[in-house]
Amino acid sequence: MGRTVISFRPALEKEIESWKDYRRALRPNEQEIFDKLMNFARIHADAGSMAGRPMLSEVLFISFAIEQEKRIRALENKIKELEETIGKK
Question: Is 90 exceeded by the pLDDT of residue 36?
Answer without folding.
Answer: yes
